[in-house]
User: What shape does this take?
Amino acid sequence: MSDAGLPSGWEVRHSNSKNLPYFFNASSKESRWEPPEGTDVDKLKAYMAQNTRKPEGKIHAAHLLIKHRDSRRPGSWKEPTITRTKEEAIEILKGHERRIKSGEISLGGLAQTESDCSSARKNGDLGIFGKGEMQKEFEEVAFALEPGQVSGVVDTASGVHLIQRLE
Assistant: This one.
C-alpha cells in the first residue's frame, strides 16, 4: 500500500486536460477516475489534502445543470433532445435546491443522476478553474461563494445551474 493508500502499482496523476487527479497503474497501463479496488479511502483523502494545491486565484467547484429547449445545446447524456421550457427547468432545479439545502442529499449525489452535464459522472465536479474560464454569470456566482456554500438558481446560455464551491 502506497502513502496515498492505493494498492501496489497504482499512483495518483494529474490530468492537464481536465485539471483533475486520476489513478494510473504503470504495469497494466490502466488509468481511471475512480480509486482502484483495495484503496484505503481515508489514507487517500489525507494524501490528496496534503498533495493537491489549487493555484492562486482559482477555485474548485461543482454544479448541477438542468438544460431547457432554449439552452445553447438542448441535449444531454440523459436526453438527446430536451423539450422542457426554461420555467420548467427552473422549477426542477428549485426542487433539487430544496432537497440539497434540507440536507436530504448532497449536490454531488444529486448531480450523478439529475445533471444534464457530462460532469454528472464526477458528482458534478468541474475541477479547478480561474476567472475567464467559465461563462460570466456562472463565474461571478462561483467566485462569490464561500467554500461549501451552494448557490441559488444561476441562469446561463447552457441552462440553469446550482453551484457549490468546493474550495
